[in-house]
Amino acid sequence: MAKIKPRVKVPRSVKAGEFFTVKTLINHKMESGQRKDKKTGKKIPRKIINFFEASFNGTPVFTADIQPAVSSNPFFQFSMKVDGPGKLAFKWVDDDGSVYETAKPIKIG
């Protein structure tokens, strides 16, 4: 599998109390556990990102429990607002226990 890389897009600065858009995407093949290997006939084990969370200064602002029907490279977009500057942290959890994280600063301007 290719290296799993999360990508996040947020504005460079936002106005306090105004909504802004956050976009996230993680490169992940996502295997549902329903397909069979054509050579062996055995089921390919499930391997999906099963949980996503975005938090601002430690407080969750968006969470998602992800099921096998999700497509490869899951993309999330949501709107939020903040009253002051801080850190917007992102976490994706894989079936195998791997955790992928990144963060972006939110500046008020």
What are its keywords?
Immunoglobulin-like, mainly beta, elongated, 3-stranded antiparallel sheet, 8 strands, 49% strand, 109 residues, 5-stranded mixed sheet
What's the short story on this structure?
This protein is mainly beta and 109 residues long. It has strands spanning 6-9, 13-14, 20-26, 49-56, 59-65, 75-80, 86-94, 99-108.
Describe what you observe in this structure.
This protein has 109 residues and is mainly β. The protein contains no helices and 8 strands. The protein has a single domain, classed as Sandwich (Immunoglobulin-like), CATH 2.60.40. 0% of the residues lie in helices and 49% in strands. The strands form 2 sheets. Strands 2-8-7-4-5 form a 5-stranded mixed β-sheet, with no helix packed on it. A 3-stranded antiparallel β-sheet has the order 1-3-6, with no helix packed on it. A hairpin with a 4-residue loop joins strand 7 and strand 8. It is elongated and about 60 Å long. It starts with 5 loop residues before the first strand and ends with a strand.
Helix residue percentage:
under 10%
Shape, per Cα inertia axes: elongated
Number of helices: 0
pLDDT averaged over residues: 93
CATH fold field value: Immunoglobulin-like
Query: Gap between N and C termini, in Å?
Result: 40 Å
- The SSE string, one letter per element, is EEEEEEEE
In terms of per-residue confidence, which ranges show pLDDT below 50 for 5 or more consecutive residues? none
Number of strands: 8
